[in-house]
Amino acid sequence: MIAVKYFGAIAEKTNSKSEEFLFSELSLSQLIDSLEKKYQLSSMTFSIAVNKTIITNAENCMLKNNDEVALLPPFAGG
């Protein structure tokens, strides 16, 4: 199982703070493609973290059972 957490505007768009997928092994780019088809996220800007580490290249990232993926909107400071 792979857990996906949504934050900020992404949580609003998906109408959920998280969901789980029953995959034991999957590439991050496959997961993002699946989420794009389900939620039309391409118009949104976000970073992706896997197990609390920001991922810069989704193509080379393989997810495995019990991984946690977070879709993070841009952060604003003040």
TrEMBL record:
It holds the Pfam family ThiS. This is MoaD/ThiS family protein.
